[in-house]
Amino acid sequence: MLAKEVKTGVMVVYNDAPCVIENISVQSPSARGGATLYKFRARNVVTKNKVDITLKGTEPLAEADFSRRDVTIMYSDLESVHLMDAESFEQYTVDREDVANEMQWITEGTTGIIAMIYNDECVGITIPASATLKITECEPGVKGNSATGRTKSLTLETGAVVHGPEYLSQGESIKVDTRTGDFLGRA
Question: What residues does the Elongation factor P C-terminal domain cover (predicted)?
């Protein structure tokens, strides 16, 4: 596809790596005969690094052979996470360190997990924007502590630690924003 046809969210191949376009800015020429430049801010899907791409409007940019598949987590070990496609039952393996941030919000039975498949290989996963998790460890809640805006550390069933209001107690379920790790509310 031509650079002028690229939209945000499109997967392209740049320097032999899959990149997702996050931002586009157009720079018009200041002189006659000058070419319009398209500046793309992309993110390498494999390394998670930001990539800046500058092209003329008529220069080509290859679209990536990329798909998103609904998966379930079969099991995980110390090195990798094993996934199964919900429709075709194909199995994928991804390095645990590549998905460590996402794994802290996943429990057995978590739904809505999407595998990003590039050239028939899983390069990462995306998870729902919020997760419902049970508090396994925290300081005891005291009646009347809801009047202040103070927070305390809450250890969740996955081992993740978030900060939440003082009135919460062990055994309660809460909703957490998986992108930021913020407390959203009781579940």
Answer: 131-186
Buried b (16+ CB within 10 A) or exposed e, 24-48: beeeeeeeeeeeebbebebbbbeee
- What are the helix and strand counts (H, E) for the chain? 1, 15
Domain final residue, candidates 14, 44, 63: 63
pLDDT in tens, 42-52: 988 878 889 99
The answer to whether residues 92 and 80 touch, using CB atoms and an 8 Å cutoff, is no
140/121 same-domain check: no
In the numeric block, the tokens 């609904």 are attached to 70
Residue pLDDT, tens place only, 147-158: 567 888 999 999
Q: Is the pTM of this model over 0.90?
A: no
**C-alpha to C-alpha distance for 54 and 182, rounded to whole angstroms:** 36
Domain boundary among 126, 145, 177: 126
List, for residues 43-98, the tens digit of each pLDDT value: 888 788 899 999 888 888 888 877 889 999 898 888 999 999 989 999 999 988 88
